[in-house]
Amino acid sequence: MNQATDCTAPCDLPIHAAGAALRAGRFSAVALTEMHLARIAARNPAVRAFVHVAGEEALRAARRADAELASGQDRGPLHGIPFAIKDVIDLEGWPIRWGSRLQADRVAKETAPVVRAMLDAGAIPLGVVATYEMATVGPDDSALAPPATNPWNGAHVTGGSSSGSAAAVAAGMVRIALGTDTGGSIRSPAAYCGVVGLKPSHGALPLGGVMPLSPSLDHAGPIGRTVGDAALAFFAMTGREWMPGPVEGISLAYGRAWAEDEAAHPALLPMLDAAASVLSLCGARIALADLPPYAAIEAAGCDILLAEGFAAHGPRVSGAPDAIGPMARASIQMGQKIGPAQVSAARAAVPALRATLDALLSRHAALILPTVMAPAPPFSAFNDGKPVWTAMRTIPFNMTGHPALSVPMGLADGLPLGLQIVGRRGDETTLLRIGAAFEAATDHAILQPALA
Asked: Which pTM does this prediction carry?
């Protein structure tokens, strides 16, 4: 069941509109924060996105934002806007516990630069949102907190590992949440929950204070209710300005071949074709992309991720195996089985893939393709406690470092699917411009899950 967004509620306003209302005095940052906290109190028991709510700290920050705005000190579009932080990104003094019983007593000693940038922009930190344990796989009921549920249907997962970030945004508890993405962990939850997820170019956002999983693949980025929300957060963290614009005349490569797979839901290809048609009607030129076979790329990416994950966390897991859930433990320990020759072969495949994408993107402004191949699976698919492979088309762009954006593309069986837009390295502006044009030409961002 779904409903159209009630844009009359202040906490449902897009960030640019909420910011304008704050500056016009129609409501205060304190009132906006109180509304978000009330939403969390009402909805989080079912959605389980927040694992720590910092109400008093948020209200102190909101009072400071109100005072600054009243005195003429304007920090930019996020000034007075609440946000949430994934449970692997540090904020000094907060319980950042990686979703793991192994880190149950951990308190962050420093603030990650991405969080510091949000704070310097005047954003209001509401709390910490759930992750699959140690940013690996899930859902796992034996982890530190129960897994977040999909706001569109509580019997289904959110995807991982930025599970709480996507669920909190989709449930209207916050407009923006920070996440991380090593193999798709921003984009797949965004797709499964019907929100917007941006994996920037590799290195665009610093990873200090972020739990490492696979350093060559790790990225931090925002999940937002709309493309504009995600863009404002990204550009606040990079010190740049959001510049929306038309897409008329640009060329887009359409990676339809990577959607032609037995794992694809029957609705996926028609939905992708419709999305390409929408962008064509917006003025873009669409050309089918010649892409290399997907399976070998994914296998190489997984080898890199698992090997680097074991290097980062293997000793920790081996030293306290009972304190780590079976899914995270199995995922990390799998990396031990990948020998040096296999890892070298996987890494050797990356330059050729990067060159292929660079060549494609020298002829086209961006590549469009699916984010995930089917809607979010039910929790019942994970009943045996073993990891379940969910088909995505995300990890190649962690390998190459190209920026990738997932935007809502429609519903299949009442659950969201996402369109993925991949751009040139360093060119998040064009990527977000295309996403915003697609969003404006459809009603996908207007629909939200029906929640009390």
From this structure: 0.96
